[in-house]
């Protein structure tokens, strides 16, 4: 049987095309989607909401958290508004939340109680609410163990009971770290009375997620106008100030294995690192600051991790990676306050190697929060 030149070329071309298509299909089939663990995802409980509203209606100026969050979200928000959607999704740890995760391709959320957590209450009430909230969280994780992990809240107002609850949360409930919604009674974690809390976090080898809340009463007044007290400006200023206090106080010389997680690309600390190093050295030389074992930037790389929650700027991501190191950057959505699909698309489209992308999407969170046995 003879084959014409045209027939040979046609057959060869078709074969090559089929081989190319087969190879392409094999490549597509072999590509496994990157696992996605979102690390700053908020929730609330009906019991907490009731207690928050009781304070808000009794003394609405006692905390800037009340107008910036509690009242706007939980006190009869306008139907169909963002605040109404936030309220609904904060209280849901099943149907709507899981549907949103599935739609965006999110494998797991690490859940933490939304601001102001239990830190707005008197010590007895705060301790009881922390226990109830952590039990509520652990029950949700038990229902969906492959979809949720969680950070325990506790009441720094009573450090003895706080440490007891931290130990219970890790050893009995299997939670993965801790959430502190910044200041407590207008005090910050560098205050000596909170030393047992920091010591416990280091001993348990679990990080503290230092989440913003509205500025404390000592700095609140300039933030009351123009809606400045919340995520537009006040949250980042407040949490960044808290983190700088921890660094300059020498906390990390006393607790060198303590890990702190900051959201929102590090609450502006990466931008300030050069100046923090420069001025800390000058003040130590002048005797105005107790000398530290390391420069602030070195503590940032050793003791901190940063997440991308609510911040989708490629240039800022580059800066955070340079400041913190790729192993200390984790992905987050800031659900329900931000859009899950947008947050996924941001990291999928970022200027990263596939290894770096996997580190940010899941590997760093798995290591820091002990998600892999």
TrEMBL record:
Residues 96-371 form the Amidohydrolase-related domain. It comes from the Bacteria. Keywords: Hydrolase, Lyase. GO terms for cellular component: cytosol. GO terms for biological process: secondary metabolic process. Gene3D superfamilies: Metal-dependent hydrolases. GO terms for molecular function: carboxy-lyase activity; hydrolase activity. This is Putative TIM-barrel fold metal-dependent hydrolase. It comes from Sphingomonas kyeonggiensis.
């Amino acid at each position: 049987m003879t084959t014409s030149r045209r027939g040979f070329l046609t057959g060869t071309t078709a074969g090559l095309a089929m081989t190319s298509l087969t190879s392409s299909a094999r490549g597509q089939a072999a590509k496994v989607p990157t696992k996605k663990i979102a690390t700053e995802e908020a929730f609330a409980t009906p019991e907490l909401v009731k207690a928050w509203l009781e304070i808000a209606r009794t003394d609405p100026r006692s905390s800037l958290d009340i107008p910036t969050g509690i009242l706007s979200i939980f006190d009869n928000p306008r139907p169909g508004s963002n605040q109404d959607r936030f309220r609904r999704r904060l209280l849901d740890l099943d149907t709507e939340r899981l549907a949103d995760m599935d739609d965006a391709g999110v494998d797991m959320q690490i859940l933490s109680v939304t601001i102001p957590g239990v830190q707005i209450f008197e010590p007895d009430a705060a301790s009881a609410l922390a226990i109830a909230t952590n039990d509520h969280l652990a029950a949700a994780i038990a229902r969906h163990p492959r979809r949720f992990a969680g950070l325990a809240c506790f009441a720094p107002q009573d450090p003895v009971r706080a440490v007891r609850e931290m130990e219970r949360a890790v050893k009995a409930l299997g939670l993965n770290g801790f959430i502190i919604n910044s200041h407590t009674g207008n005090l910050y974690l560098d205050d000596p009375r909170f030393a047992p809390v920091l010591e416990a976090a280091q001993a348990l080898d679990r990080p503290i997620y230092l989440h913003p809340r509205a500025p404390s009463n000592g700095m609140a007044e300039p933030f009351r106008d123009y809606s400045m007290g919340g995520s537009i400006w006040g949250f980042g200023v407040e949490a960044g100030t808290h983190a700088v206090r921890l660094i300059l106080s020498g906390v990390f010389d006393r607790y060198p294995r303590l890990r702190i997680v900051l959201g929102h690309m590090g609450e502006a600390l990466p931008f300030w690192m050069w100046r923090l190093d420069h001025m800390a050295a000058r003040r130590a030389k002048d005797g105005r600051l107790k000398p530290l074992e390391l420069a602030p930037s070195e503590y940032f790389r050793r003791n901190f991790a940063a997440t991308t929650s609510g911040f989708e700027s490629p240039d800022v991501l580059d800066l955070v990676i340079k400041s913190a190191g790729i192993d200390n950057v984790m992905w987050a959505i800031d659900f329900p306050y931000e859009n899950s699909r947008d947050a996924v698309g941001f990291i999928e489209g970022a200027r990263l190697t596939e290894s770096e992308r996997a580190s940010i999407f899941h590997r760093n969170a798995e290591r820091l929060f002990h998600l892999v046995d």
